[in-house]
């Protein structure tokens, strides 16, 4: 009896530690920080965005969750803190497909796969003045994702999606 309870307790402990480093936890922990822009796109808006053009349909695809967050990263300590938190999120469960480091500056594209499909894409940029992440959860064609990585299309994707397709969402509104 005690062995079963001990095993259950250990399982719960490992599960709770594993969920600490997740997009949900990070998003919820920082969405109320000062000077943070946080956008979580609802499903109906994803449908509208994907209908704009064949290119957007290809990009958005079968996205179920799209989040964007931009936050200040103006001190070396803050930049290092944000870089470490993103490394914690992507550390074991994501496959890093692109990384560009320049001192504390980062540009990282990580994916999570299931069988022959990409299920999650996380794009993290930190230029040591501001940092951002763009997160897609859905069902994506790995060939298309690989092509986008190869052509460096993820470097500016977050800002382009937010500026072009969600112009009415801003911190001032």
What report would you give on this structure?
- The chain has 173 residues and is an alpha+beta fold.
- The chain has one domain (21-165).
- Helices cover 43% and strands 30% of the residues.
- It is built from seven helices and six strands; from the N terminus they run ααβααβαββββαα.
- The chain has a six-stranded antiparallel β-sheet, with helices on both faces.
- It is globular.
- The model is unreliable at 6-20 (pLDDT under 50).
What structural keywords apply?
alpha+beta; 7 helices; 43% helix; 173 residues; globular; 30% strand
Describe the biggest sheet? 6 strands, antiparallel
- How confident overall, as mean pLDDT? 79
What is the helix tally? 7
Tell me the total number of β-strands. Answer: 6
SSE run: HHEHHEHEEEEHH
Computed Rg: 17 Å
Number of structurally distinct domains: 1
- Based on CA inertia axes, which overall geometry fits? globular
**SS strand fraction:** 25-35%
End-to-end separation: 57 Å
State the low-pLDDT regions, or none. Answer: 6-20
Please outline the helices and strands.
Blueprint: H1 2-20, H2 23-30, E1 37-41, H3 43-50, H4 54-60, E2 65-72, H5 76-90, E3 95-102, E4 105-114, E5 117-126, E6 130-140, H6 142-150, H7 157-165
Antiparallel strand pairs: 1-2, 2-6, 3-4, 4-5, 5-6
Brief sketch in words of this structure:
The protein has helices spanning 2-20, 23-30, 43-50, 54-60, 76-90, 142-150, 157-165; strands spanning 37-41, 65-72, 95-102, 105-114, 117-126, 130-140.
């Amino acid at each position: 009896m005690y062995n079963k309870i001990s095993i259950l307790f250990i399982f719960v402990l490992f599960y709770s530690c594993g969920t600490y480093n997740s997009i949900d936890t990070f998003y919820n922990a920082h969405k109320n920080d000062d000077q943070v822009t946080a956008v979580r796109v609802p499903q109906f808006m994803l449908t509208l965005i994907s209908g704009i053009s064949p290119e957007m349909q290809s990009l958005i695809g079968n996205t179920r969750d799209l989040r964007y967050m931009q936050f200040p990263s103006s001190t070396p300590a803050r930049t290092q803190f944000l870089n470490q938190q993103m490394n914690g999120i992507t550390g074991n469960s994501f496959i890093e497909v692109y990384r560009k480091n320049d001192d504390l500056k980062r540009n990282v594209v990580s994916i999570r796969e299931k069988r022959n499909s990409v299920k999650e894409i996380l794009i993290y940029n930190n230029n040591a003045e501001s940092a951002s992440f763009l997160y897609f959860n859905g069902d994506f064609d790995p060939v298309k994702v690989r092509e986008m990585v190869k052509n460096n299309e993820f470097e500016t994707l977050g800002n382009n999606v937010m500026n072009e397709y969600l112009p009415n969402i801003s911190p001032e509104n």
